[in-house]
Batch of 2 targets.
Target 1
Amino acid sequence: MNNVQFSVLELANLCKNKTTQDAIERAKIGAQHIDTLGYTRLWLAEHHNMEHIASSATSVLIGHLANCTSHIRLGSGGIMLPNHAPLVIAEQFGTLGTIYPNRIDLGLGRAPGTDQTTALALRRNNLNTAFYFRDDVKELQQYFSAENAISKVRAFPGEGVQVPIWILGSSTDSAYLAAELGLPYAFAAHFAPAMLKTASKIYRDHFKPSEQLQTPYFMACVNVIAAETTEEAQILSTSLFNLFAGIITNQRRPLSPPTDKPIYAGITEIEQAVNSMVSCTFVGDANALASQLTSFITEIGVDEIMVTNYIYDDQKRLDAFNFIAEAFELINAPTKA
């Protein structure tokens, strides 16, 4: 197996009885903890009108965490580009890339990252912006290019700054676009796994080399709950399952302590919906995770795994990052002849 990179998706979730400031501090401590553990990158996701997620001002939080760390790449997973003018994003990430050279990624998504009413507020009553996603990506690339120096509209900072662009998605549409533009592709299997295998194949089959990327590079984001023992990890995982049950039933809650069993146990419809939504979830100790993830990586054809960490207890969350790093040491260990 090739050297599979491993990274983290940070949502800055609020925990039960904690504040937004606590959530941001928890994200900072997590970023500092993984900074020296071999993780490749930490991305933050743009969400709006969600009281238990503190990452709405994504570029601001990226800058904060970049300033608190030394090595790990920071980026967006993603910036929902139809919510923004491409010029503004070029300026924001051009600024980040200037302050933190070779440490900033720009992942771009097409969805609003919120409900339709809030999307209207963000997009000023123009929901058609999503239909111009490809054009907006191309415009953004133009602002970053040195060749844009002859244009009447230029991004300062931004022009000539090296900020890798990624396409994010949960469907085959995004796979075709990433392949056409020759960009790295990240798939949101942590909440929308249905099209994962198909999207991976489409991306690789249709990939066209670009100035940024010569060969396809595919990342899958999955849920991972790690602990010293698989039994403990299974208990900790109830926080994740209960959180997703709240999303499905439209009764969103902060991240809460584990329960003896999922709160929806015995309610068939919710069980089926949660199981479908989080089917790309891996639970166990380092050895169990290495086995599970090796099979997944081989089946899907993955160059990098990005993990979520929905563990309620602050110390157990940090410990989990250690166990995940151990799992990837096992995954990437040379095979004995």
Note: The chain has eleven helices and nine strands.
Target 2
Amino acid sequence: MTGLVSAERGVGGTALADALPEAVVVLFAAVTHLADPWFLFGLLAVAYWFAGDRLAASPRRAGATAIAAVTCAYAAVALGKAWFAVPRPPGAMGPADVPTWLPGLLAGWYEAQVLSDGFGFPSGHATGGAAAYLSLALLYDRAWTDRTRLFAAGAVAVAVAASRVVIEVHYLVDVVAGLCLGAGVAAAALWLAGDPRLRRRTASWVDRREPTAGLDPTPAFLLAGVVSTAAAGVAFAGGHTGEVVEAGIGIATGLGGAAGWRLVSGDEPAVPVRIAVPALAVTGALWVGAYALADSLVVTLAATTAAVVAVVALPALPARIGAVRPDGTASD
């Protein structure tokens, strides 16, 4: 099956990137951050915690479903990379051609952007970006118009995908496959969550007017766990240690999301800033620790699970705190 995607799969993307001015390449190196995993999950967590009913009928259900959709997308990427196991373009291996006019700090940042290891197909940034921005456009359905939201989502996803080719860490076929995969996974995740727009035969007209009101992200979170488990098996069989860790993080994220959602009703108000700020610091530290301690799979899985449970369960925390008196007894 690995022969379905060739290691030599470039179709001129590298030549186009080489022809662009250095300033344009640097700009695209910045654009690629819009689909970095840390940025996407931070964006989704903030939207999940703070969005109000001016954005969706049920902003907590919408936000959790968006997180589940992107979790599924990264699970699909882990499976695809372990399955096809094809390399990135030679330029991603280095040495980096850093523009001489960049100051030292930006030169280090740029070098980190244009060098990347691991397998190349499909593009994780293109897949994650398509899934995230399409999910946000569909789920926060009270903002702007449908056309405006979808256009903006598509523009950002395509810009991110293009950036991966311009900075030469992916071939064109990698990002095109990623865009298609991300869009398909987002649609599947929303269908599993019960989005009535994708279940027209069983949804009433009222349901379709308020599509987020009855969403349940649990099936999508569990699907991410299942796909990540398959990815871990394929990666382990192929001897791809890095991909085993990535798949393990996917398992923890999927199961942690499903567990965290069981602690909320889905109808909670926005999270108070006084609770969200320290929670963001704690969960961020857990995420960083999960990747920094990737050599210990058990520690990585534990830290990831704790972080995701905390993120998803946080909207329920204010009510639970309010239900307990300072002396530890339950309030009336």
Note: DSSP finds 14 helices and no strands in the chain.
